[in-house]
Amino acid sequence: MEIRSIFTKWGFILLFVVYSILWVNASEADKPKVRKIGKDQDDDPLEPDELPEHLRPQPNIDLSKVDLSNPDNILKVSKKGKSTMMFVDVNPELTQSEADNILSIWQTSLQNNHIIAERFPIDQKRAIFMFRDGSQVVDAKNFLIEQPECSYVTLEGQNYIGKYASTVSNVS
């Protein structure tokens, strides 16, 4: 009984020593490879389009090529490549299901025109349209204010009344 416990005790110790030697040898052999892999990854900077938006280099704006008399052109140029949000309110006389349906149709219509927008409902008859490329927001605004169900659009703190809006009391 005593021999068995001694053997078990020494067996575990021997096993521990063998594994330790193998571990040390294996990790020593792999250290240069690991160091090289780490250096390769640190040497390659991310491409500008892979960087988060706030770390991307800002594009140079050539104002000589922009029609400064039209604020929409300035907005297109200044928001190019930046995320931009636009608030859209539908006609208050619509039901919630009609409003959801109209907002969904508008999002699909924009996407069919190659204007990529994500829609986030924030109220029963209000949604945020977020554009990854802010230069598309002007075309989207012009499309939306022409829709009969659009009450108004808020973009960059400015309200644009829908062409067919019946009431303006909600616009602040």
TrEMBL record:
Cell location: Endoplasmic reticulum
A GO CC term? endoplasmic reticulum
Q: Which GO terms describe its biological process?
A: protein folding; Wnt signaling pathway
Which keywords are on file for this protein? Chaperone, Endoplasmic reticulum, Membrane, Signal, Transmembrane, Transmembrane helix, Wnt signaling pathway
Return the Acidic residues bias intervals: 41-50
Organism's domain of life? Eukaryota
Q: Metal-binding as a keyword?
A: no
Principal localisation: endoplasmic reticulum
**Transmembrane region(s):** 6-26
Q: Annotated region Disordered: where?
A: 35-55
InterPro entries xrefs: MESD (IPR019330)
Q: Which family does it belong to?
A: Belongs to the MESD family.
Q: What is this protein called?
A: LDLR chaperone boca isoform X2
The source organism is Ceratosolen solmsi marchali
Gene name of the record:
LOC105365658
